Amino acid sequence: MTALTVLQAVAIRQQQDAVRHPAPLYVQACPGAGKTRVIVERHLAGERGACGRAVLSFTNVACSEVARRCHQAGVPELAAFPNYVGTIDTFLWRYLVRPFLKHGRLWHRIDSWDRIDAAVEVGTGPNRHKVFLNDFHWSRDLDASQCTASLQPKKRAIKSYNALSRLGMLDAAGTAAVRKRKTLVDEGYVTGHEIRILALQTLRRKHDAGIGMLSGRFREVIVDEAQDCSAHDLAILGQLHDAGIPLVFVCDPDQAIYEFRGAQPASIRAFGESLGERVDLQGNWRSSPAICGLAATLRPAAAARPPDVAVGTHHDEPAGILLIGTDGSQPDEALAVFNKHADRMGITQQNRVALAHAGTALPAAAGASASQPPANYAARVAWATAIARSDHKNASRQHVANDILQRALLRYWYAEADTGDRSVEAICDSIGIDVWRLRQLAGQLAVALPDVDHCTFADWCRKANDHLKLLPPQPGMTRLDQSGRLSATGDLKNKTPRAASGLLSSGSVTPVRASVVHQMKGEEEDAVLVIVPSDTRTDSLVNAWTTGEHPTGIAENLRVLYVAATRARRLLAIAMPVDAQNRIAALLKLKGIAFELTTT
What we know:
The protein folds into 4 domains: 3-97 and 196-285, Rossmann fold (3-Layer(aba) Sandwich); 108-187, no CATH class; 290-368 and 511-599, Rossmann fold, CATH 3.40.50; 377-501, no CATH class. It is 42% helix and 16% strand. The strands form 6 sheets. The chain has a 6-stranded parallel β-sheet, sandwiched between helices. It has a 6-stranded parallel β-sheet with strand order 17-16-18-19-15-20, sandwiched between helices. Strands 4-9 form a two-stranded parallel ribbon. The protein starts with a helix and ends with a strand. 46% of the residues are buried. The mean pLDDT is 89.
């Protein structure tokens, strides 16, 4: 046997241990460890009977992959009753929430408050600002008694955030958002956050019934990507474990990048260890040795471990880490350098991606796009038009776009008070129109609206209103309100509709994709460029990286960088200011990790 086959045999043996070991079990998996394969093989190898197995993850994409592999293996029934393969949100709703809700109310599960355009207005007169509930960070103590909200300085909300901050009204905005949220919940609307609160209430008030519902249905519950668990998720899973429901907890705590949910990596590790038995997957089937080595430097000293072992196709990739020194923040120049190196390695543009923690740090020349519709009403309709006409593969974004177009029709023809803060289905029910007809009209509208890459936004709005006028939700009706017209205001007037919506011009997009790191979780590419911008946090980030001491406030930034770096198979390039570049180069030299220095 060669050295490689020995290492591969060890990695495969670790996988088989994770497949065969009885629950409860903690599986700590490094990036590229093949954990989806382990989960599927465990599912395939399990006994069949009246009780099934639940396989939970946090995204529909991950769940679909497990279901696809079950079909591929010739056992599609493993993705169907009595088994459950799906998101943790749906699992909690289906088994711990919906059966225990009071009858007589229509409940609406929504993936976010944006799905119903939920917003609150704060201030008066010229100081009045409309802010969306989805731009608030929500927190609630684990006994579910006190909810708080704080407006976040996101791109969409930044103007309102700054204005309300100057006025000393951020607390008032949070209070108004909490009141609005309570009103919506009382009307039957719940997001994933509310589902978790309700699930905890079931386990505390009707514990035996809730546990009985699960234990009678499932012989085992597997939680994939468990590092994404919130504090509420851990509290729920803890009660299931204490009640004797077998859990398999699969995660990489170093990829925990949702700190705002209230669960720190230390909490994730502690919960995993509380299950008693642990299997580590340390063979990386994705990345090169240099990338595995760099990833190890990003782990905190308190949780340090040797670099993961490169055992896959790229185990002998000679390329080192490409450190690109920049003069301040130069994302476009860094992208050009990255592309030259990827060209020399024969990596196609379709297999490259540029990543950053925040969208504002991404190269303007790359194929980034606004993942969230803008706050401006007319610009939202332009955004939806562009998304609906594109070949965008994100199903959730397509749903949001279609929803916005349906709402545009409703708002144009009906009073604004009748068309806000509810699902489209609920609005249609209350005003007596056929939701299927509305969906057909929205499809016609998407095709009929003017091109978003030509004319000014002001002209586009005028033409769009002409098309809205031709599509009444009820034949022969007259408009009940004049407030729903689209209009361009302020500095948006002379922009193109696409620019007004926050999307890149289609003509300027290169084949190199760009994305914020959070949207790349679970994905991989041959070549990855990571942008570390020059800002007030850069020195603190590099200090924490080089010392291994990860203080609160910086630790998650390093985990985001870890997730970004471990998406790469062959080439990992990191663009950062020259001073930072030199310090990281010294660290890599000390650790014996191959690297190359260059500048923009």
